[in-house]
What does this fold into?
Amino acid sequence: KNEVEQSPQNLTAQEGEFITINCSYSVGISALHWLQQHPGGGIVSLFMLSSGKKKHGRLIATINIQEKHSSLHITASHPRDSAVYICAVIKAAGNKLTFGGGTRVLVKP
Amino acid sequence: GAVVSQHPSWVICKSGTSVKIECRSLDFQATTMFWYRQFPKQSLMLMATSNEGSKATYEQGVEKDKFLINHASLTLSTLTVTSAHPEDSSFYICSASLAGTTDTQYFGPGTRLTVL
It folds into this structure.
């Protein structure tokens, strides 16, 4: 079993819908990243979380350290949000990013 | 701010040749840079961690003599794929952080390598 699991693997939404992507991890962590990878391959770091909740525009990320779970929400989704969203954690005992398998999001107009 | 560039963005080379990929932090000094490889429809895999002025730390299974990493300054790290073979064809991505891996990592746009 992977240390970082994401669900769903694929998600299709209509423009305007609210989207939630989940990330569960099985190790102690010092921080969790949400990354966005567009079809061209470039990666953008959306959030780094160690507790609570962060908001940037239409994106909201939450983390529950006790439950070892994080969610990424996209409000009022738009076709330009179509991308692969990747959850990655920094283990408390280590110093490297461990990646989830990614969630491929397609937002249809 | 916090822009990381990579050059080239794509490269095609013949089997047996060496290819150098540059990773630059444009507006900040990166004490640590990371090199990742990503095969189609797979997640990123860390190849090595590079600290300025010291030898890179390679992940298990990554040949250090094949993937040469140099981090000569706080704004530049290079990855050289030596004697490239078709199985080295992949998407190579670097990232940079200010203060080690607990800080936010800023990712480069990636370099797509195709070895014929």
User: Anything to note?
Assistant: The two ends of chain A are 36 Å apart (CA to CA).
